[in-house]
Design a protein that fits this description.
Structural class: mainly alpha
Order of helices and strands: HHHHHH
Number of helices: 6
Oligomer: single chain
Mean pLDDT: 80
Largest sheet: none
Number of strands: 0
Low-confidence stretches: none
Number of domains: 2
């Protein structure tokens, strides 16, 4: 498992680093748009859409991005504002309600919000690239380090305390404490 993750990380690094450093902004934007389509596909899978539904949703997200860039007279700030409203008002409301997110009106709302948030992320990353490569690399560094700084010590603490437990926890067939991580 670790070997697969390391190989995946190296392949992604081999693709993303040269594009970030040397490609024109249009090429960088195209790569991030490609990532946006896969993110939309994954978001649709999390909302339990069918296989055709996930492909359709990813295509709609890509089309919405193209429309937002070329045909609509919207600016990127409208996507930033919509995202801010969602994160400040919508997300806390959803967390307080604790709904079953894959059913009913929640699913439809999250599908629409997903497209808006993904397009806002695309605009933010491309705007950061316009400001310069050092800025993008700094953002990536500052967004990755806090996550690693939280996850690695927490995992170490769990590893130490998990092994001290003398009463085994009932798990499914073939699962062990090491399989949890």
């Amino acid at each position: 498992m670790l070997k697969t993750r390391v190989i995946t990380a190296l392949v992604l690094l081999a693709v993303f680093l040269p594009v970030t450093l040397f490609a024109p902004i249009s090429g960088f934007g195209a790569l991030i748009a490609f990532v946006l389509i896969f993110a939309a596909w994954e978001w649709a899978r999390l909302l339990k859409l069918s296989r055709n539904g996930t492909l359709t949703y990813a295509a709609i997200a890509g089309l919405a991005l193209v429309l937002s860039m070329h045909l609509l007279s919207t600016s990127e700030t409208s996507f930033y504002k919509a995202s801010a409203v969602f994160w400040v008002i919508g997300a806390p409301y959803i967390l307080l309600r604790k709904p079953t997110l894959i059913e009913g009106a929640w699913r439809g709302m999250l599908l629409v919000v997903g497209v808006i948030l993904l397009i806002a992320c695309w605009y933010a990353v491309v705007s950061a690239r316009i400001l310069g490569v050092p800025f993008v690399l700094t953002l990536l560094l500052w967004s990755g380090l806090p996550i690693s700084a939280l996850i690695l010590p927490a995992r170490h603490w769990v590893d130490i305390n998990w092994r001290r437990r003398s009463v085994p926890v009932k798990r499914g067939k073939g699962l062990s404490a090491d399989g949890c991580w």
